[in-house]
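Name: ABC transporter permease
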Amino acid sequence: MPQCKESQTASSAELSAIPPTTTSWQSELLHRQFFQKRRRFPWPAVLWLLFIIIGCLAAPLIANHDPAHFYLHHLSEAPNQKFYFGTDALGRDIYSSIWYGGRLSLGIGVLSMLVSTGLGVLYGALSGLASRIVDTVLMRTAEILSSIPSLLLMILCLAFVPSPSPISIALIIGGTTWMNLARIVRSEVCHIKNSDYVWAARFMGAGPLYILRYHLWPSIWSPIMFMVVSSIGSAILMESTLSFLGLGLSVDVISWGTMLSLANRALLTNAWWVILIPGIFLVITLLSITRLGYYIRRQLNRGCSNL
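Structure predicted for ABC transporter permease:
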């Protein structure tokens, strides 16, 4: 019996010393490599955005035609050596319109981002710092507005604008998309407003705006950074949607949205390049902005966790 126990103990020790199987080791290695790749810097997204930004800024140098000129003898012409991306139903050069229209679309996205970020941060911070009754009223108002589809709010606001301009479109988009950001800011402010340094600032006579600027803003930057970056892409998409529906900019104003507004005519004439080429630029730009936003949020969260 003692010999049997010793043999069983020896066999169990030998089994525990055996390394894991090759299959489990390879799966673990692949698992680590997969997540390491996901943590890498999004070079394709950044390079694409740089390519678009540089191309839009250098539009007068790289455009080979006047984007606002109607080449009536070349209506809906396929891509060729003269018109690299073809022409639309109005005879405008799509290649030149891509770069000039990208200027306007990116400008609308950045301006609407600034408007929505300013409104969302200020509204959410004031709601979090206010009394319970004021906080309840402000948050119920934001929840009611956020329950309405943003596209419907934009259409309602555009009804009061006789001739929409790029600035008015950006202000309307930014003024109707700040509610979710305000709720996130308010939750972060409520989480940190009872900290020692905030109480010390209050006892020293600091007002809400001072506390927001010097104490709360550095703490709420990380949670809202993803929404701030992704709001640029959302604004570009909203502008394209409004122009596609015929409610945004007029056709004579060149943007990626107004270029896609001619999609119904392109489908009837089988002019695939009118839809495909601007759509590719728009989709890849939106995906690049979203990918960059995910990376920034992950890096900020990692930096906060290391503190």
